[in-house]
Amino acid sequence: MFDLIVRRGTVVLTSGSTTADVAIGDGRIAEIGPELGGASHEIDARGLFVLPGLIDVHVHFNEPGRTHWEGAATGSRALAAGGGTLFFDMPLNSTPCCVSAREVERKREALERASITDFGLWGGLVPGAVGEMGEMAERGVVGFKAFMCDSGLPEFPRADDETLRDGMAEAARLHLPVAVHAESQDKVRLKADPTDHRGLASGGSNDHGWGPALAGPSNDRGIREFLDSRPVAAETDAIGRALELARETGASLHIVHVSTGRGVSLAADARARGVDVSIETCPHYLWFTDADIEHLGTIAKCAPPLRAVEHHDALWDTLLTGHIDIVASDHSPTEPAMKAGDFISAWGGISGVQSTLPVLLDRGHHDRRLALERIVELIAATPARRFRIARKGTIAPGNDADLVLIDPAASFTLQKDHLQQRHKASPYVGATFRGVVRATLRRGETIFMDGQVAARGGGRFVRPEPL
Ligand SMILES: [Zn+2]
User: Fold this and answer.
1) Distance 51 CA to ligand 1 centre (A)
2) What is the pLDDT of residues 281-291, one digit of tens each?
3) 450 CA to middle of ligand 1, Å?
């Protein structure tokens, strides 16, 4: 007798899709096959695609310490509404940042109380803290995140090349990857305005950070200036350096939020020469271009910034040719007040944790014939494999019954009140998507169905399998 059978869906396996039942017992997938019998509950999945739950390897839920920005309770609800069952939280912008074993413990406890989905934790790699990495690894972090430009938070300083090299060597010893925000600080620069003496040239706004407010009222000026301050060359320069250090140290490198086809190609070339690198991009680079910023404003501010259409198209080309490994949201919300004001001083970060699958289904599957098996690779199978998370990422007997049920034929227009995150602001509001998430199951339990979140808590900490 099974606990649940998901009946007659099109089950997307790594080997292809098949119409089948998925039987679940004790939170695991017990059997996959036609006409399975005997369960206390059933879900009719006819006409729906059944995928493994989305694994979002890059979010900022800001817990503990900045739950007024988001928090794992609301963040994980939004993830579940977007088909997600597992996330890896970045070491910032929780506060204090997650750069020691003690903070890993604290964050784990806070998230175990709050999250409805399973979760893993990134540790931080910052100057002076390479010695902390071993103990963080013992506590089960999935890897270590470093910034190659200022992070926007003084308590999470940029990793200089020496820190990055030492950190990569240590991470290699610990068999864990280093994730880098790849923009070179010396190429990230707001142009000096001769009439302005408040130091725009000294760095200004960045990834998740603030910059000095602009004197002029013109928001448009802020947009152009911000885009110019973070050129493609800042990304490719940093990627090149990170790849070289990974080659030197033998570290596994994960490059987060690559925004250009050029950046992906650089990393893919290095991989072909033997560097152990995985490449992540985000749904916002696949959906928007810099032209959208004019009407969206600060809600679409992020770093690296949204790119010109030729870079956006080239990024899609690299995804379709199989060079991109993982699509993750880099969900990075804040309070509405910090998104107000001019473009330069506004907080940088896009809230999109609920929209990753809809973006890939609409712009990928519908517009570009991206196979569902490929989508599964990008959002579940590769994340689980790359970060050695056991029993996750694919639909197979013995694996956790983490599933998302999708109606590929239906469409919806995202409304503010669909958003499960704390602050109902997202650049995707008003967009119409083909492909609707009908239900999300975490270890066999329905945590989201037909627009309603159906769980409180219950998320478990996951850690990498030892090598
Ligand atoms: Zn991020």
Assistant:
1) 25
2) 999 999 999 99
3) 29
